[in-house]
């Protein structure tokens, strides 16, 4: 391991924003534990990357990933809960299947994995929950993507409760909106590259964000819930 010794665990590091963030952090001398469902991250080859298979909807997979990480490392400094899905993006009605799938990954899976690995996050560490501006309650004027919006609002509540729980351990927990980014999850017309978004998230990682707050990685500013 040749790095600044800061270890960052990123879920969904094989694709999109998570993949670009893994590349950025490795370039900045962090050590990255990257998860993907098939246990591969094809486009990054670095001695500062360790890949673990993780499917957030599968209890066995969560337990296996947890024990592999604990056997190999002594702790993690930063957890980036990035993996997520949006099957009802832009749809007007929340069909039950999308609602179920979205919550299974973005909420139940994320919380389950986080709670499993939580005591392995070092004191003074950070947890970043990749949320979305689509979760904001104060500014909803659109009627689409109900399941996705609801899942990210639920995630934001987890950010708040976890931040309060972890205050004594000095572990900061924040929600991050990565911007509207060109990935396989997003709709056509997204203006930002994954590299731009990853740079913005990186700057926030290096910033002192007050715990329990919501940040926009594109604009580098605090957001309303
Ligand atoms: N793109 C945007 O404009 C935008 C805006 C706001 C928020 N976000 C958020 O940013 C995060 C990253 O999304 P992205 O845009 O980069 O999309 P993406 O390229 O589709 O990346 C999503 C990642 O999540 C993984 N994933 C999906 N289901 C999973 C599961 N059950 N278990 C483990 N991993 C799973 C995917 O793995 P596979 O490759 O195997 O599917 C992939 O690595 C998401 O939380 C998303 O909600 C994105």
UniProtKB/TrEMBL annotation:
Pfam families: adh_short. Keywords: NADP, Oxidoreductase. Belongs to the short-chain dehydrogenases/reductases (SDR) family. GO terms for molecular function: oxidoreductase activity. One of its GO terms (cellular component) is cytoplasm. This is SDR family NAD(P)-dependent oxidoreductase. The lineage of its organism: Bacteria, Pseudomonadati, Bacteroidota, Flavobacteriia, Flavobacteriales.
């Amino acid at each position: 391991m040749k790095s600044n010794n800061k270890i960052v665990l990123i879920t969904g590091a094989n694709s999109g924003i998570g993949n670009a963030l893994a590349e950025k952090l490795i370039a900045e001398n962090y050590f990255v534990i990257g998860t993907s469902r098939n246990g591969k991250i094809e486009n990054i080859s670095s001695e500062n990357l360790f890949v673990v298979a993780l499917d957030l909807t599968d209890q066995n997979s969560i337990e296996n990933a947890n024990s592999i990480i604990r056997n190999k490392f002594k702790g993690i400094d930063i957890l980036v809960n990035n993996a997520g899905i949006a099957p009802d993006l832009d749809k007007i009605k929340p069909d039950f299947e999308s609602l179920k799938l979205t919550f299974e990954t973005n909420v139940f899976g994320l919380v389950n994995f986080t709670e499993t690995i939580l005591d392995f996050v070092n004191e003074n560490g950070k947890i970043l929950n990749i949320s979305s501006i689509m979760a904001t309650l104060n500014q909803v004027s659109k009627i689409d993507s109900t399941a996705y919006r609801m899942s990210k609002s639920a995630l934001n509540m987890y950010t708040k409760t976890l931040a309060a729980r972890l205050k004594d351990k000095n572990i900061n927990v924040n929600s991050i909106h990565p911007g509207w980014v060109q990935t396989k999850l997003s709709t056509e017309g997204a203006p930002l590259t994954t590299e731009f978004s990853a740079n913005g998230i990186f700057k926030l990682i290096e910033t002192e964000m007050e715990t329990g707050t919501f940040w926009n990685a594109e604009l580098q500013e605090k957001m309303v819930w």
